[in-house]
Amino acid sequence: MVGKMTSLVNEVPTFSRPRERLENYGEKALANHELLAILLRTGTKDSNVMALAMKVLNKFENLYFLKTASIEELMSIAGIGKIKAIEIRAAIELGIRISQASQIKIGQITSSRNAGEMLLSEMRDFQQEHVIVLYLNTKNEIIKKETVFVGGLNSSVAHPREIFRGAVRFSAARIIIGHNHPSGNPEPSEADLMFTKRMATCGEMMGIEMLDHIIIGQTHYISLKELGIF
């Protein structure tokens, strides 16, 4: 029975298998039955997993009715046992909770001073150079704070892709970059100025505004926005 089941799964050409298609093309490229087939994992002795997934969807007509299906209703489908039914219910409930989840705000930026004081309190005693990005929504609320680089003294090499990958992932409208000088002196170097202008240009191209780049020293900070660097 197991051998028959495996052979039926393997009858599906590699380029058509849902796991491979998701890996190669992303989840949005998959049809509903392909996504469900990934969750089901295996078919039965009489039909492969793709056919079983189609059988489940046909039973409930559309995704709304599948969402409300009970374990017993799922188990009434040939090939869906208790474990598969429980896994489907768990996946549906997780999807519902994700759709209802709200983004957690961890503060709001009202000025460069506000951001500078926040970063100063956190970064002033770092012995290595760190680059921290505050990702903000359209109300300047912080939706994520992320360290994108940690390096040796005078070796900050954070690339725009590290900075803006997070902005895209967290759907940020704006960013503030903070980095510390372990020497304790926040005066910007030529490399700092070039980095700042490069980040601002990248942000303009992507439609993600860089509000400020703040350099943190031991006792105070310097806002490159307030200096008019960009």
TrEMBL record:
Keywords: Hydrolase, Metal-binding, Metalloprotease, Protease, Zinc. Pfam families: RadC (PF04002), UPF0758_N (PF20582). Residues 108-230 form the MPN domain. The keyword Hydrolase applies. It comes from Carnobacterium iners. The keyword rRNA-binding does not apply. NCBIfam families: PRK00024.1, radc. This is DNA repair protein RadC. One of its GO terms (molecular function) is metal ion binding. CDD domains: MPN_DUF2466 (cd08071). InterPro entries: MPN, RadC_JAB, RuvA_2-like, UPF0758, UPF0758_CS, UPF0758_N. It comes from the Bacteria. Gene3D superfamilies: 5' to 3' exonuclease, C-terminal subdomain, Cytidine Deaminase, domain 2.
